[in-house]
Specification:
Blueprint (H helix, E strand, L loop, with lengths): L7 E4 L9 E6 L3 E6 L5 E5 H6 L1 E5 L8
Antiparallel strand pairs: 1-2, 1-5, 2-3, 3-4
Length: about 60
C-alpha cells in the first residue's frame, strides 16, 4: 500500500474521541499518526495499521499552482 506523509487515513475503528481520520506524520517500517479529532499521536507497526485502513485521502500534488 502506498502511504505518504501528509495523507489522511480513514480507519475501520473509531478513536475514543469519536474520530476515524488520522494524519500520517512518518512512514517506513512504522507509522506515526495524529488523530484529527483530539491530536493524540500514536506510533506502531506498518502491517498492523495497514490492516485497519478503510480509505486514503491524498491531496493532489499536480493541482497546486
Amino acid at each position: 500500500m502506498d502511504i505518504k506523509v501528509g495523507d489522511i487515513l480513514t480507519m475501520k475503528k473509531v478513536h475514543p474521541c469519536g474520530e476515524k481520520r488520522w494524519l500520517v506524520l512518518r512512514t517506513g517500517m512504522d507509522f506515526k499518526l495524529r488523530c484529527l479529532g483530539c491530536g493524540h499521536e500514536v506510533m506502531g507497526a506498518r502491517n498492523k495499521f495497514e490492516r485497519n485502513i478503510r480509505a486514503v485521502e491524498r491531496k493532489d500534488e499536480t493541482s497546486q499552482s
